[in-house]
Design a protein that fits this description.
alpha+beta; Nucleoside Triphosphate Pyrophosphohydrolase; 361 residues; 2 domains; 15 helices; Endonuclease III, domain 1
């Protein structure tokens, strides 16, 4: 019995040391970020959604622009869809911001426009899952809540020498169960943010993390046993499906033809150039669009990688006299691609070319 008491006491002491060592490091090394200036739950929410699939450095200018235009939940709920998509342009995964607007409307209707504190209530909002709810709850409201992302899974897999596949739900659950008791009640948000920073700066996905600089290296099984190259273990993702796409850029009197994509499916509700499944050659284009006496110029090929699909893109520039190309699109001034219409990053090669001052049609 005394032995068990001693073991439990030692575990508690070790846990306290880990907490305090990490928080001490965070107090001296934390990354200054615009959403950390205060504990505004709205800003934390926006930043966490933006940070999904996107690096911190890339997010900062998008975040600042977004918050300047939409500083409150009410602003987000009421902004027009086209402007919202334009604000998000360049971040990709546009479903994220659509869900945010739905959630903002939920907040106005069900919570008087105020972000709830508990993870349970936060997860009632569209697009907010366990991780985002935990991040908002702990950082904004000092609630003891886990915020399990890739950084935390990697750190705790290394700390405790967990060799199982961290892509599996079973391993994720096990690591969450290990990590949650370590969240201190006096600084839960800082602790979670410290782990996020540690994962970005030191305990990186690289096989050569900066272990000598890590405040937790004395507690880390992977470091003590040289397991950094094998822990954590990640199984291979499924191969992406490859899809052939043809992009036709119709130009008439310095205007370009665009159309809005359907409200559901890939890149929903965004604007695009004329986009066709499969690769077409010039004869196909002439026949499909009844083109006569036009010059068709081949533009550079490009590729774009989505989560599960890779587009292999062929593109053509077509100077035309057609009053309309199809029944759903319209001509716009090329400069409006900068200011008004959200063209997905998938077409960035061609949008950038159109916006060049020295372009030649």
């Amino acid at each position: 019995m005394l032995y068990l008491v001693w073991v439990n006491m030692m575990k508690k002491i070790k846990k306290t040391f880990m907490q305090e060592e990490l928080l001490y490091w965070y107090d001296h090394e934390y990354i200054i970020l615009p959403w950390r200036e205060d504990k505004d739950p709205y800003k934390i929410w926006v930043s966490e959604i933006m940070l999904q699939q996107t690096r911190v450095e890339a997010v900062i200018p998008f975040f600042e622009r977004f918050i300047k235009r939409l500083p409150t939940i009410k602003d987000l709920a009421r902004v027009e869809e086209d402007e919202l998509m334009k604000l998000w342009q360049g971040l990709g995964y546009y479903r994220r911001v659509k869900n945010m607007q739905i959630a903002a409307k939920q907040l106005l209707e069900d919570f008087d426009g105020v972000m709830p504190k508990s993870t349970k209530e936060l997860m009632q909002l569209k697009g907010i899952g366990e991780y985002t709810a935990g991040a908002i709850s702990s950082i904004a409201f000092d609630q003891v809540a886990p915020a399990v992302d890739g950084n935390i899974l990697r750190i705790f897999a290394r700390l405790f020498g967990v060799k199982e596949d961290i892509r599996s739900s079973k391993t994720r659950k096990e690591l969450t169960n290990i990590y949650t008791p370590y969240i201190p009640s006096h600084r839960p948000g800082d602790f979670n943010q410290a782990l996020m920073d540690l994962g970005r700066k030191i305990c990186t996905p690289s096989k050569n993390p900066k272990c000598e600089e890590c405040p937790l290296s004395s507690h880390c099984i992977a470091y003590q046993h040289d397991l950094q190259e094998t822990v954590p273990f990640l199984s291979k993702k499924k191969a992406r499906k490859k899809q052939q796409i043809t992009v036709l850029i119709f130009i008439k009197n310095q205007k370009v033809w665009i159309r809005k994509r359907p409200v559901t499916g890939l890149l929903s509700s965004l604007y695009e150039y004329t986009t066709i499944d499969n690769h077409l050659d010039e004869n196909d284009i002439i026949n499909n669009y009844s083109l006569n006496d036009v010059i068709i110029n081949r533009l550079p090929d490009s590729k774009h990688i989505f989560t599960h699909i890779e587009w292999d893109i062929k593109a053509y520039l077509i100077n035309t006299k057609l009053s309309k190309v199809d029944d759903v699109g319209f001509y716009v001034d090329i400069e409006e691609l900068k200011t008004t219409y959200s063209i997905p990053t998938a077409f960035k090669t061609y949008t950038n070319w159109l916006l060049k001052k020295d372009r030649k049609f």
